[in-house]
Design a protein that fits this description.
By secondary structure, the protein is of the alpha+beta class. It is built from 3 helices and 5 strands, in the order H-E-H-E-E-H-E-E. It is 28% helix and 25% strand.
């Protein structure tokens, strides 16, 4: 819904404000999506987790881009979070959604963020995949089914 989309953009601003660097630029390529994304709070939690990971992957600064779009042919909402950070080594890619697995040192996280994101997306019958190369950043691509407009208190079913 429009409310979900507006809340998503607000969460992006909040995440940037909370990150300990002034060298991160944010870019939005957000297309108007009037479809319901599912549970607004859970979608926001996914976005915040992906944003924090992106921002933490850029200790020397960089750019994080959020893209949204509606794929009419598949009736899916597409949400991308792309960064210009350190990237994910190929040998770690198959494990990044495992609980307690982290590419960061122990001081930066416990490895639950992407696991939570994965669980929420699967609960919404969506998908997530990542394109990344070490030293070239990462692009997380999330796809949710678009639902008709619902009362926010109702649970969306496909």
């Amino acid at each position: 819904t429009v409310k979900t989309f507006a809340q998503t953009l607000k969460m992006m601003a909040l995440a940037k404000e909370l990150v300990d660097t002034d060298d991160i630029a944010t870019k939005r390529e957000a297309y108007y999506v009037s479809k319901n994304w599912g549970d607004a709070n859970q979608v926001q939690q996914c976005l915040v987790n992906l944003l924090f990971n992106a921002m933490e992957s850029m200790p020397d600064g960089g750019v994080v881009t959020i893209r949204t779009n509606w794929e009419e042919s598949s009736n899916m909402i597409r949400l991308e979070v792309e960064d210009t950070g350190v990237g994910i080594p190929q040998e770690m890619m198959s494990r990044i959604f495992e609980p307690f697995f982290s590419t960061k040192n122990q001081e930066k996280g416990v490895g639950l963020g992407l696991s939570v994101v994965y669980g929420i997306i699967k609960e919404h019958q969506g998908s997530i995949y990542v394109k990344s190369e070490k030293g070239k950043g990462a692009n997380f691509i999330v796809r949710f089914f678009a639902y008709p407009s619902l009362d926010p208190s109702e649970k969306a079913e496909p």
